[in-house]
Amino acid sequence: MKKLHLFILKSYLGPLAMTFFISLFILVMQFLWKYVDDMVGKGLETLVLVELLFYATLQVVPMALPLAILLASLMTFGNLGENYELTAIKAAGVSLPKTMKPLIIITIVISIAAFWFSNNVMPYANLKLYSLLYDVKQAKPELEIKEQVFYDGIDNFRIKIDEKNNETNILHDIMIYDHRDRLNKNSNVTMADSGRLQISADKRNMVLTLFDGVKYDEKVQMDRKRLRERDQQRFKRDIFREQIALIEMEGMNFDRTDEQLFTGHDRMKNLNQLTTDIDSFFVEKDKYVKHLTRKSETFYFQTARYSARTKKKDKSLAYIDSAEVLIADTLYASLSLQQRKMAMEGALRNAKDNKNQMEEQLRQIRSHNDRIKKHRMEVHRKFTLSFACFIFFFIGAPLGAIIRKGGLGMPVVISVLFFIVYYIIDTLGGKFAREGLWPVYQGMWLSSVILLPLGIFLTYKSATDSTLLNADAYLIFFRKLFKREKFDLTNRLDKTEDINNKD
After folding, report:
1. Which of 95, 109, 411, 420 would bridge with 74, disulfide CB 3.0–4.6 Å?
2. How far is Cα 263 from Cα 381, in angstroms, rounded to an integer?
3. Shortest CA distance to 181 belongs to which of 156, 159, 154, 153?
4. Per-residue pLDDT tens over the stretch 263-295
5. What DSSP string describes 437-489?
6. Where would I find the H helices in 155-213?
7. What single string gives the DSSP state of each residue in 378-434?
8. pLDDT tens digits, one per residue of 68-107
9. How many angstroms separate the CA atoms of 467 and 473, rounded?
10. 103 closest CA partner among 392, 345, 330
């Protein structure tokens, strides 16, 4: 039995490692396709790109692991069935559950390790990845001025050149618009015959040396007090042989943001932090609910009572405090026309103020509800991803034993189909939970609840040697069916000929 278990383990661990790295590679490529536009042309260092890919790889591990287990178990038992090794094992008196026993133990260990990874490594990897990705998105593209096209990659400047010599780095026929004057953006224009463009070592400034040019400037020294002096200085033209311009380039260099700004996101927290923050959100939400309840219990005639207590001479309001039952129509009828108008305006103003305050309280309550739902979803996700490894093994192993097809052909197709179904159901359940249509636990465990009975059913069918998904069995069945129909048809024709001959 030990030799059999070792044989099964060797047959399983090799495909598991291979399919895991293949799945990891495919998912990382998907990440690159998603964010390739944010990374191209930024002049990022190789170390930054390696760090980004490393954390992206860690992020997709929980998704690649269930797919690898499904594909590996399907390939392993498919190969065993195709080579009749599984038949020999069953003939020796070893049932399929006993054959699967060492792989079940391995799958349980992998599921526990996947939970530990999701709880401890994933929050750190998400924090590093999203903070680094934010910095990459904020960085501006490298300075690349094209010929006969206005370049707007530098704030408040537009640069156009007619020709560029890449060997000498000399620019010809340069035109620069300075838009730092918000009121008149085209008031400052510089034109030069040629120039040289250089970037400072810290990538914070652009040094532009211009030769044989002219600078046109309007509204120079507009702070002069005398009108005549302002008119004389309204337009200015400077001709120069050589001029050096220093332009500040904000955002061209790659700066790292403080990672503490991203720690409040639910993806950057472990299980203890999530549960603690959920309790804190509930406490804060209860404060807003109590405040909203107090606001909704405002007395309608509080202002009238206040007036009755402070203005004793006003007999029309003096009876309010002593009245057992207060009738609004009677109170309103006792007021003069001007007082009615003021009362209506005051009531409308108070109603609008109370409405705005209540809407603000409701907005805060909804915000806390959304944060609570997201944190609860993340709590369940840490369990569902590891449980998916367990489910996919009990789908892949019996399915491979039933179809008896190994290699990377049929198992890959079936695994991808199952994984797509799982991903669609999981996404749908997460959407229902996020929008509040379903409770969080129902939405997050929907895919597991649907696929677990399927795994149990397939395991039962494979243990009882079912030909449920065996293509050869269906071919034999249809061949027998067609032969029987052909035989019946032949008998009918023979009987018909006999009858005709007798007649």
Report:
1. 411
2. 18
3. 156
4. 777 888 888 888 888 888 888 888 888 877 776
5. SS-HHHHHTHHHHHHHHHHHHHHHHHHTT--TT-HHHHHHHHHHHHHHHHHHH
6. none
7. HHHHHHHHHHHHHHHHHHHHHHHHHH---TTSHHHHHHHHHHHHHHHHHHHHHHHHH
8. 998 888 888 888 878 888 878 878 878 888 888 888 899 9
9. 6
10. 392
Tell me the helix, strand and coil percentages in the chain, rounded to 5: 65, 10, 20
Of 128-137, 253-262, 344-353, 440-449, which gets the smallest average pLDDT? 253-262
pLDDT surpassing 60 at residue 67 = yes
> Per the structure block, which two tokens stand in for 105?
């133990």
DSSP code, position 260 = G
According to DSSP, residue 267 is labeled G
Q: Whose CA is closest to 243, among 211, 276, 220, 206?
A: 211
Cα separation of 98 and 473, whole Å?
25
Helix (H) or strand (E) holding 236: strand 235-248
Degrees, nearest 5: CA angle 27-28-32? 120
Identity (one letter) of the amino acid at 26?
I
Query: For residues 349-367, b (16+ Cβ closer than 10 Å) or e, as one string?
Result: eeeeeeeeeeeebeebbee
Instruction: Grade residue 343 by pLDDT with cuts at 50, 70 and 90.
Output: confident
Which H or E run contains 160?
strand 157-165
Which residue(s) pair with 248 in the sheet? 205
CA–CA separation, 257 vs 138, rounded Å? 10
Helix (H) or strand (E) holding 212: strand 205-218
Q: How far apart are CA 285 and CA 366, in angstroms?
A: 9
What kind and span of H or E run contains 105? helix 96-116
Q: Give pLDDT tens digits for 1-60.
A: 678 888 888 888 888 999 899 889 988 888 888 877 777 766 677 888 888 889 989 988
pTM of the model: 0.67
CA separation for the pair 454, 460 (Å, rounded): 10
Q: Residues with Cβ < 8 Å from 90, sequence gap 6 or more?
A: 96, 465
Residues 6+ apart with CB under 8 A from 44: 136, 139, 254
Alpha-carbon span 378 to 267, nearest angstrom: 7
CA distance 91 to 87: 6
Q: Which helix (H) or strand (E) holds 88?
A: helix 85-91
Token code pair at residue 319: 């009876």
Q: Is the dihedral of CA 323, 328, 334, 339 positive or negative?
A: positive
Amino acid symbol at 465: D
* Whole-angstrom distance, CA of residue 393 vs CA of residue 104: 8
Please say whether the beta carbons of 150 and 174 come within 8 A.
Answer: no
pLDDT at site 351: 77
According to DSSP, residue 119 is labeled I
